[in-house]
TrEMBL record:
One of its GO terms (molecular function) is glyceryl-ether monooxygenase activity. Coiled coil: none annotated. It comes from the Bacteria. Pfam families: FA_hydroxylase (PF04116). GO terms for biological process: lipid biosynthetic process; membrane lipid metabolic process. Residues 121-258 form the Fatty acid hydroxylase domain. It is a multi-pass membrane protein. Keywords: Lipid metabolism, Membrane, Oxidoreductase, Transmembrane, Transmembrane helix. This is Sterol desaturase family protein. The keyword Mitochondrion does not apply.
């Protein structure tokens, strides 16, 4: 117990100091200013090349989504995720120790032993595929869907909608992603930063007010014209759970036939069945999945 109390203290003190350093000191892998730079660039693209030309500069829920961006990327870690993550890792390692194993025993591949570009590509592909499957779970498991409805409550799409999600989502994503990343160990902080900013940029673009699909690359990269259909309120008849689950890559949807782009979706209605009763404020959205029984 004393060990976990110390983890609790170290997690909060360590992350607070990290966040303070991010805000006060600029460096190339700075997540705080990186988020701001990526967001401003994609927002400018929206203003220069708007797909829905009648959509306001400050669209519906623009400021709510902006708050979600900083809360989910930074404050959420300070409040709960870092401690949960460190505790889960310690508990898992302790459990393995009881049966005479350690995480390194599960390592099937060390990316350090591969050419740099190949190792980074494998890290990115494995991360994205696992998250694609996790995203499908969020739509298929009723209790997880209740949490995921926060993201699908967006009614006007814009770059900041990318990070409107319930705080339980990263708990689910990180928990499922832990083992696969342990199996392909060897990546360092630079690898994590590159994958992070790549996924952040693609995700922002997917939700932006941009009518892009990247031509032939649409079969590999997720894009605004594809992702808008993931947020469609009216689902196609062949599925009741959703379509176009890709985060950074669209290739998984084409491979497993969950792709759906019937026509230009610029003006389709977004949301989900019953979203007119969904709360509009952050606090109410945060407790909605917990207090809602159906």
């Amino acid at each position: 117990m004393e060990k976990y109390i110390q983890i609790f203290k170290d997690s909060y003190i360590g992350y607070f100091n990290y966040l303070l350093d991010e805000i006060t000191r600029f460096h190339w892998e700075n997540y705080f200013y990186g988020l701001i730079i990526v967001s401003v660039v994609v927002w400018l693209l929206e203003l220069l090349f708007p797909w829905r030309k009648n959509q306001k500069v400050f669209r519906k829920d623009f400021w709510l989504d902006t708050f979600y961006m900083f809360f989910n990327f930074f404050l959420l870690n300070l409040i709960v995720l870092i401690f949960l993550s460190n505790t889960a890792e310690a508990f898992f390692n302790d459990f393995l120790g009881l049966i005479g194993l350690q995480v390194s025993d599960f390592e099937l591949l060390n990316v350090d032993a591969l050419p740099y570009g190949l190792g980074l590509l494998i890290f990115f592909l494995v991360s994205d595929f696992v998250q694609w499957n996790t995203h499908r779970l969020l739509h298929r498991v009723p209790i997880l869907w209740k949490f995921h409805q926060v993201h699908h409550s967006v009614k006007e799409m814009g770059f900041a909608a990318h990070l409107r999600y319930h705080w339980m989502e990263p708990v689910v994503y990180k928990s499922i992603l832990y083992i696969p990343l342990a199996i392909i160990g060897g990546f360092d902080i630079t690898d994590v930063a590159i994958v992070h900013f790549t996924a952040l940029t693609i995700g922002h673009l997917n939700h932006a007010n941009l009518g892009w699909n990247y031509g032939i690359l649409k079969y590999v990269l997720n894009n605004p014209k594809m992702h808008i259909w993931h947020h469609a309120k009216i689902l196609p008849k062949h599925t009741k759970y959703g379509v176009n689950y890709g985060l950074s890559l669209s290739i998984w949807d084409y491979l497993f036939e969950t792709n759906h782009i019937p026509h230009d979706g610029r003006d389709i209605e977004l949301g989900f069945d019953g979203d007119e009763h969904f709360p509009q404020k952050f606090i109410h959205q945060s407790i909605y999945p917990i207090k809602t029984k159906k």
